[in-house]
Amino acid sequence: MTELRRGAIGDRWVIVAPMRGRRPSDLISTGEKKKELAADKCPFCPGNENRTPPEIYRLPRSDGSWQVRVIPNKFPALGDESDGTARFRTDGLYQHMAGQGTHEVIIESPDHLKSIPDLPLTSVENIIDTFHIRLQEIRKDPRHRFVVLFENHGSKAGASLAHPHAQIIATPVVPPTVKAELQQTKMHYLQEKKCLFCELLKGELESGERLIEQTDEYVVFAPYASCFPFEITITPRQHVHSFTMMSTDQRKKLAAVLKGTLHLLKTSLEDPPYNLILQDAPNVSISSHTPDYLRSLEHSYHWRIAIIPRLTTMAGLEFATGFCVNPVSPEEAARFLKKQAI
Amino acid sequence: MTELRRGAIGDRWVIVAPMRGRRPSDLISTGEKKKELAADKCPFCPGNENRTPPEIYRLPRSDGSWQVRVIPNKFPALGDESDGTARFRTDGLYQHMAGQGTHEVIIESPDHLKSIPDLPLTSVENIIDTFHIRLQEIRKDPRHRFVVLFENHGSKAGASLAHPHAQIIATPVVPPTVKAELQQTKMHYLQEKKCLFCELLKGELESGERLIEQTDEYVVFAPYASCFPFEITITPRQHVHSFTMMSTDQRKKLAAVLKGTLHLLKTSLEDPPYNLILQDAPNVSISSHTPDYLRSLEHSYHWRIAIIPRLTTMAGLEFATGFCVNPVSPEEAARFLKKQAI
Asked: Is B324 helix (H, G, I), strand (E, B) or coil?
């Protein structure tokens, strides 16, 4: 059972998710050195399917094996709590609620060693399609107010198992940072009748100084206020609020752009650890919001993928101020990556 | 020359601080493995004083050597920019300003290997006194709106040199997270005529479940919404808004509590990497604010030290939601540490 807590000072929210059957001191060794499991011990490898929780979904192969598997996370940050009321309870100056939500793992291929840049394009298309299927399904539950898909690549980026996998988390509330962003983009839309992100994209295409790649459907660029060196945004050129709205053809094209971008990162920066985040519109339903609200959300949110290489270490300055410190300007990062692509 | 940037969406502020004379690709190797310098090569060790920028301050020994040295950071995140107007300039949808501020390094002792828990108490008192002297001095400049002291211990916590040292950064604006906290605590004070943090402390002393240690002057506890496992707060028992107001006797007592707490952490968790942050009231001066504002700030802000062990890795979930995920509840952390202390 996990718990969402809110402190008395500042808008700090924490998911307290005690490690089942482990003691606090176990963190000492896992913190210092994460052991890499060999393929024969890996619970995500073919033949070890019985070592994962019961499968939620699989993309089968004609020979009875699988191409992509989806399973519940064995150590979920959020789960199906019976009293999932999604309301903070007050305890003196503090607030808490049950950790209602869901936490799934998408095993991207049977191959223990190959991640998106190394897989054939059709395999990447299968992965993107599975993302699409699971996100659509999870968004059907109105308790899942915010649904996020992410991938941690490499132990320095927080991956606890080496076998390439993505994760989907659904939270019972829209996180404060996302709420603030929504408020800002909605306000902009109401005033200007334009999506703020579309305008930002137009500016990036015009200036070109942070542009890395563009196709007929997608734009790849280094964001102006990049928190991390070589941070990358991939976004549809046309306005779409949610990834779940993308057509089969658009998803195929995304697979190619994503594979290409991650391949560029891998070859330019020696396979860096990274976090990939699919930033999608919150999951608001007609039952809890007016049609006007829904329409303004659809017009003002613009989905995108953030790729965050983990080449620097967040330290005291970042925690004390909330400022990021980035030793590589996004203009320099885009120039460097474009030069490698040629 | 560094630059503060603000993105178009969200309130994300970034310090872009290009590494002098280094190329982006240099990050690849520094990201993976930081080389530890031997003492004879260490610019912070006695005999190598000429390898640091000119000294700002030293606490001398009677034999002509030094106990504590303060120098400018060789690679400052913020510096003395001539046009330090501390105003964001607009560039289309984006905003930026010159990275005005200061960035100092405090070399805590001549000893390359000994940090606060290993040093004699008098040495720790000298360190705390140096913190006090430099913070008082830096706060005299009204351009330094926010002054923060922090220490990164261990390369996994972002320390680039092993020789124990703290850093002080002054920023030209109060960071948004600090501003939001101030607004909240000031509002609470205006409504209740009480400091919110004093009330929180009273609750912690009554319940005791997150308490680690207390003396006549200081309280040490694990905060309710701990973002990180074994996160610790040290705070004065009585209301004081700024560390710079602490008397000689109070500073002596802080040295003992800080040494004891860091020693407990070191022995209980096998010398974990950590960030230490001295959270002090922003530096607002009479020239830019009304006496009423200053009075309410002094009544509502309560200084404290945060110690953040780095045993887990921030990953996709944290970046996507802004939520922290903590596998050790603060109640469990306090119990574990207290048991080790006996």
From this structure: strand
Of A9, A196, A313, the CB nearest to B9: A196
Phi, psi of A219 (to 5 degrees): -125, 135
Q: Are the CB atoms for B110 and B45 separated by under 8 Å?
A: yes
Query: What is the radius of gyration, based on Cα positions, of chain A?
Result: 20
Q: Is the pLDDT of residue B339 over 60?
A: yes
Task: Give the number of C-alpha atoms closer than 13 A to the C-alpha of residue B87, restricted to the C-beta side.
Answer: 4
Contact residues, chain A, for B306 at CB < 8 Å: 319
State ipTM. Answer: 0.93
Q: Pull the structure tokens for residue A252.
A: 């195929």
DSSP letter assigned to residue A156: G
Q: Residue B274 in contact with residue B307, Cβ under 8 Å?
A: yes
d(C-alpha A233, C-alpha A212), whole Å: 10
> B266-312 pLDDT, tens per residue?
999 999 999 999 999 999 765 667 788 888 889 999 999 999 999 99
Strand partners, A100: A79
Q: Nearest by CB to B225, which of A5, A279, A315?
A: A5
Please tell me the pTM assigned to this model: 0.94
Residues in chain B: 342
Chain A interface, best mutation among B29, B94, B189, B224, by max A CB count within 10 A: B224
Domains by residue range for chain B, with CATH: 40-82+98-311+320-342 (3.30.428.10)
